[in-house]
Amino acid sequence: MATAVEPLYDKRYQCLFCGREFTNKKLRLSQIRQVKRDSDLCTYFEGENPYFYEVAVCPHCGYAFTTNFGPVKKERRELILKEYIQKISHKDYTGRRNLHEALNVHKLGLLCGNLNQEKRSVLAGLCLHIAWFYRYEGNEEEEKKYLRYACDLYQEAYQKESPGGGNANLIIYLIGELEGRLGNYLTATQWLARLLQVRNLEPYLRDLLRDRWEVYRNHLKETTPSAEPPEGRKL
After folding, report:
1. Which residues of 59-80 are buried (b: 16+ CB within 10 A; e: fewer)?
2. Are 128 and 177 in contact (CB under 8 A)?
């Protein structure tokens, strides 16, 4: 009889702040069981959730980071030490995590990312995941707060980071979708309209765009009948 495969494994990291090595759990790709996905790409899983393990927290100094973080900036080290390392209560997050722990480590990652002035797109991704975790909990107020943070950061990223290709298309879509989820239907359609003119749009985005474009146009007509949604070519 074949031995069951353990879904989690230990991945080795080197802390970006203190330089010491440690392990953090990761979910094997073969063990990811997707159940459904929301229109803002929030995915629901059967069994372990891979999102829970995307932030690594050093058990030695407490610095929290993702694989998208850059090196700790020399001019930010003292601030990180004083405002984070010396203030946090150390906890070992290197094992299996539940939803509450995943929320905690993502907030630690967001704090470290802000202190180290990480890219806006990276911070936006953390905020979006935090919003999804609150959605899992059914906490709509906190979910919307972090959706707003994520949307604002994605807009800053689009303006300042000059993302190219598919990444730019994804950011545009997410801005439109998050504005729509927050009830800003005109702004949502204005952002989504930009993708209507994109040739060879990624198939998964084209399918999402087709649905959300119609949803938010209809919402806009119902809430503000005099408003004219932006036009674009049909998908």
Report:
1. bebbbbbbeebeebeeeeeeeb
2. no
Sign of the CA dihedral 117, 78, 11, 136? Answer: negative
Q: Could you list the pLDDT tens digit for every one of the 235 residues in the chain?
A: 556 789 999 999 999 999 999 999 999 999 999 999 999 999 999 999 999 999 999 999 999 999 999 999 999 999 999 999 999 988 899 999 999 999 999 999 999 999 999 999 999 999 999 999 999 999 999 999 999 999 999 999 999 987 665 689 999 999 999 999 999 999 999 999 999 988 889 998 999 999 999 999 999 888 876 555 565 544 4
User: 4 exposed, middle or buried (CB, 10 Å; 0-12, 13-18, 19+)?
Assistant: exposed
Buried b (16+ CB within 10 A) or exposed e, 82-107: eebbeebeeeebbeebeeeebbbbbb
Q: Which residues contact 120 (CB under 8 A, 6 or more apart)?
A: 153, 154, 156, 157, 160, 161
Indicate the burial class of 200 (C-beta count within 10 angstroms; 0-12, 13-18, 19 or more).
Answer: exposed
| Helical (H) or strand (E) element with 174 | helix 165-181
User: In the numeric block, which tokens belong to residue 62?
Assistant: 């407490």
Query: Which tokens go with 147?
Result: 């959706």
Q: Are 202 and 169 in contact (CB under 8 A)?
A: yes
pTM to 2 decimal places = 0.92
Please, are residues 173 and 196 in contact by the beta-carbon 8 Å criterion?
Answer: no
| 24's tokens | 């953090």
